[in-house]
Amino acid sequence: MGFTLSGFGFVAFASILMFHGFCYSSSEQAPNFKFLREATSARPVSYYDYIIIGGGTAGCPLAATLSENARVLLLERGGSPYRIPNITDLAAFGRALSDLSPSSPAQQFISEDGVINARARVLGGGSTINAGFYSRAESEFIDAMGWDTETVRKSYEWVEKMVAFEPEVKKWQSAVRDGLVEIGIGPYNGFSYDHVIGTKIGGTIFDHDGHRHTAADLLKYANPNRLNVLLHASVHRILFKHKGMTRPKAHGVVFRDAMGRKHKAYLKAHGQNEVILSAGALGSPQLLMLSGIGPWSHLRALNLSLVLNNPLVGHGMSDNPMNAIFVPSPLPVEVSLIQVVGITSFGSYIEASCGENFSENSDDSIPFKGGFILEKIKGPLSRGHLLLKSNNPNDNPSVKFNYFNEPEDLQRCVDGLKVIESVIESKAFSEYRYRFLSLPNLLNLTAKAKLNLLPKHANLSISLEQFCKDTVMTIWHYHGGCEVGKVVDSEFRVLGVDSLRIVDGSTFSDSPGTNPQATVMMFGRYMGLKILQQRLPKG
Questions:
Q1: 167-176, pLDDT tens digit by residue?
Q2: Residue 195 known to be catalytic
Q3: Cβ-proximal residues to 24 (8 Å cutoff; 6+ apart), any chain
Q4: What residues have CB less than 8 Å from 25, skipping those under 6 apart?
Q5: Which of 211, 263, 315, 477 is catalytic?
Q6: What mean pLDDT do residues 386-403 have?
Q7: What is the C-alpha separation between 338 and 106, in angstroms, rounded?
């Protein structure tokens, strides 16, 4: 009996499942947002209290919150996530990531490291195309950011009332859970949104009918009379005032609609009004540079107008590397995305997902069922950089993450893989593996898949270090590029200019918790509350 992963590429593997033969209907009711419209309908010139660039995981909760007491414009370069089964249905998970068309909600890019990746291009951002796992940040992350813990708690709960659910854990996921506990990744903490050492069941943004709930759903909290959301609105640059100013002051944006027509939106005359970047870890540093804030030598080379020299824009880019082992199963397995996580004390997170027919295009006649057990390292410590490739905001920038550049990152990967091997060998997981497939067999089987564009070494089972390097993938948790203390201050205001703030994961030096989406959504709500507090008259 033999297995092969020939014809099984990155998207199918890293997307975890394509869920062939497993179907839900896309019957959920899309919200009737009267403030949601195409940018082609926008006026040539308009005025607002806040202009938010990016309707993603942070931008949507931020816009909803600010609309409680201000006029808000939210500009999203993609379309609506609603009534699109490839986004809304659990059954179709992975199809958006494999869609390479110009209208895809996932814009693929390949880092200079040779790792295939994607950035969201849709209202709701990464929460519309990810695997849906929902878990809060560790307390150390909250403390390091200097956030008020009570407001953080309330902001998480505000998000969770709308988009978070407890998953139904079935047999294969239960075997992974029990295997983790058996080998000492304890204690078992049950179902919890909190980040605690041990093994737990986390939350999900898929409800019990298999429908995805995204950051866009948080717009249900908005005041519909004070919010305007424009779709397919591609921001080309932020506008700055210089005359009579001690330093540059953001006062508007230029954006183009789907027909290529130019529009301008300006801030109303009020001292507290702001332009807020929420375009994500690629989009925010990219737009800062396109607007003239960044390393001057690089901006001059692209003939961009210069506003402020900050060579740290685009630096500190990080992506948490993911490595996985595929385990074919002799028994039928349920279809599930990530539900269980083992949070180790040494900085590796163990997660798992399973399904049927992984090798649909393989010439192997054996039906391929099983699952991936994967590890993601915390941090990471390795850092890279981002640079522009062109003056077009719709083009991907050049980004290098320098995976495993720091030895501690590589050691965490090796230690995480050893945990996965122990789970596979555990009594709890024994029913879901073929005994004739040894651990070296499984490592080499996995390594044969087309996971990235890196050169491969023979017999990777000999060296877990080389396995980590050769089979590295993204888990789409990249961050940095506009870090606190380097590009923004502790209130996330851009250093050296006025009326410009950044609220998204580009300001993070580390990825929060096992999955950042819960914290990024919370961050949007949290900063909306803080900004509104600053807006209120003192006393």
A1: 999 999 999 9
A2: no
A3: 89, 90, 91, 209, 210, 211
A4: 89
A5: 477
A6: 98
A7: 20
